[in-house]
Amino acid sequence: MAWGGGFGGPFFGGGGHRASTDSGLPFGGIPGELMAEATKLLATEPPHPKAAFAFSQRPSPSERQRLTLARLVAKYPGYLYGGSLLVLALSLILQAGPKLTEYAIDHGMIPGHHSLEVITVCATTYLVLALFSALLQRVQVDVTGRLAARVMQDLRIRVFTHLQRLSLDFFSEEKAGVLMSRMTSDIENLQQLVQDGISQFATQGLTMIVISVILFTTNVTLATWTVLLVVPLLFVLSIWFHRASERGYLLTRDRIATVLADLSESLYGVRVVTAHNRQRRNIRNHRHVVGAYRDANFYTGRVSAVYGPTTVMIGILGQGLLLGIGGHLYLEHRLSLGALIAFFLYLNRFFSPIQLLVQQYNSLQQGRSSITRLRELLETPPSVDERDDANELATIDGRITFEHVTFGYDPDHPVLTDVNLEIAAGESVAFVGPTGAGKSTIAKLANRFYDPTAGRVLVDGVDVRTVTLRSLRNQVGVVPQEPFLFAGSIRTNLSFGRPEATDAEIEEAIDVVGLRDLVDRLPAGIDTEVHERGQTLSAGERQLLALARAFLARPRVLILDEATSSLDLQSETIVERALDRILEGRSAILIAHRLTTAQRADRIVVVDRGGIVETGTPAQLLATGGAYATMYAAWLASGGRDATREATP
Ligand code: ADP
């Protein structure tokens, strides 16, 4: 046997070999032990439990609640209270140092009060508290980190779920970038805020309060002087800094955006630039925008240069003041030496929270605007929505009626006007007409990708707006022009519309659309991985996979947007044969780009400029010599296959 025999028998070698043949892959050189270990691991791996969640088009009451940071964190009271308690404890413990120093000086160091014992106890307590606070800090960072991670997970899922509910009109090209930025930078801003910002804000705010209280209880006179002289100066300076730095931030942000835009334009347009000898001018322009960016950086640099040293200076001035007033009070025996030193220490500690708060303010602002933007997104209602009293659509025969339907993607510019059409159960109808006439648009109204601006669309006599989206789309299936393959095996891609499909059903679908040869050729059969980017399959094969997917989903009505890219003759024949099988007993709308397909339909509807201009069986339309007959003649003249002749033996 096998390559793995050398590793000592059936356990190592056998296991690996079996796995490789099972998957149908040729052996790729995996060592026996590794394979066996992996197999062993897989055997102990519990099956993935089904996650307990439901999706419905109607949001749940909690999902309807307005998005606020408070609601997001309130979902985790344990973390919230635990975190707050830790922050509180830390703000208190961290301020014990100067107090201990004061006690050690006043009761252990000044002449007449020498006590080694007091000094030892104070120093030991100091060290123990320092260690303890380090430990608490570790726990606090962990707790707020976890809280932030959970809140972000909830938020991501909530936004994603909302995106699943939104209608097609929302997902235009231009919005994709905006949506990505909601999911990345906005959510990251919030994460930053929950993780660091809020706890920093709380810690620093509390620290200032704790220090103020300590200062006032130690000596009211000195505390008042300090607070009156130092705090207002610091306050004014910080407000100025905050405004100036915000301006600087906006300025640098705008200017770097211009630099990047200029850069990317030059890169993308490099051929035109070279062809027209624009290099010199481009450089001049780039020097200009980079210069503007440099000026913005100069500005923010200047702002920081003023703020940092000035706060330091205010601090030093404060200390000078303390020295004078405090020394005076000491001589008058109204202040102990220890208390004076503690005052110095506290004053120093008073400054860093102010500086930190000012810095954190920007992240607070960013977090706030992020949450506003996310809230807007979450509050965008789907344009095609379910009613609260929507019913399940019972199994339908497949009769579709368009009643005086008018529709425009932009309601002011109708694309369809007063369309009336009845498709009988089991009938296949081909839409033909020039590009942009509105064929796909009519079809998109049948499964409620969009809703008409006026008129009604009925399925078996039921207005599609009165039934649940799920039950409607289960029965009215769509095969889009460009079939999309998801990352996964052919099996998962096929059973997309009906995950419970059995292997036998999947194999049947493959046979029906004529993909048997392809699947047999693939290394792992239906378990071969395919994905959208991997161009392993030809356009025709992808089209057939999409058909097989539709066949497996078994909708009662099938809407098929035929690919415009021409298939080669052989694939075309296979697709047509597949279509014949798939459409058996189903109503269908075929948006036909090839007249061979149109000719096979029970009825043809000619669409032009948003209206139906002609309808009848292929033979009728050819006989009357109207628009379709003209199109057909032109198509034949340009080398199309004569399907009438092919169809009649
Ligand atoms: P056909 O299928 O006959 O080629 P469509 O139904 O796709 O035509 O398009 C009809 C008209 O609607 C065209 O003018 C097209 O530009 C416009 N249109 C199609 N899709 C959209 C859309 N998503 N947003 C705005 N306009 C659209």
- Described by its quaternary structure, the protein is single chain
What coarse outline follows from CA principal-axis ratios? elongated
Which ligands does the model contain, each kind named once?
Answer: adenosine-5'-diphosphate
Would you identify the regions where 5 or more consecutive residues have pLDDT less than 50? 1-27, 643-649
End-to-end distance, in Å?
Answer: 57 Å
**Structural Rg:** 37 Å
Summed up, the domain count is 3
Number of helical segments with 4 or more residues: 23
CATH C-level label of the largest domain: Mainly Alpha
Biggest sheet record: 6 strands, mixed
Q: So, CATH architecture of the largest domain?
A: Up-down Bundle
The SS-based structural class is alpha/beta
Strand order of the largest sheet: 6-9-10-3-11-12
Helix content: 55-70%
CATH topology of the largest domain: ABC transporter transmembrane region fold
The total count of strands amounts to 12
Q: What would the average pLDDT be, to the nearest integer? A: 84
Beta fraction: 5-15%
Q: How would you sum up this structure, described in words?
A:
This protein is α/β, with parallel strands linked by helices. It has 3 domains: 1-42 and 486-536, no CATH class; 68-378, Up-down Bundle (ABC transporter transmembrane region fold); 400-482 and 558-612, Rossmann fold. The protein contains 23 helices and 12 strands. It has helices spanning 10-23, 32-44, 61-64, 69-74, 77-93, 96-109, 116-165, 173-218, 220-268, 270-275, 279-331, 337-378, 439-446, 469-475, 490-494, 503-513, 516-521, 539-553, 569-583, 595-600, 618-624, 627-637, 643-647, and strands at 400-407, 416-423, 428-432, 454-459, 462-463, 476-479, 488-489, 529-530, 557-561, 587-591, 603-608, 611-616. The strands form 3 sheets. A 6-stranded mixed β-sheet has the order 6-9-10-3-11-12, with helices on both faces. Strands 2-1-4-5 form a 4-stranded antiparallel β-sheet, covered by helices on one side. The longest helix is centred in the middle third of the chain and has 53 residues, at 279-331. Adenosine-5'-diphosphate is lined by residues 409, 415, 433, 435-441, 591. Adenosine-5'-diphosphate binds at residues 409, 415, 433, 435-441, 591.
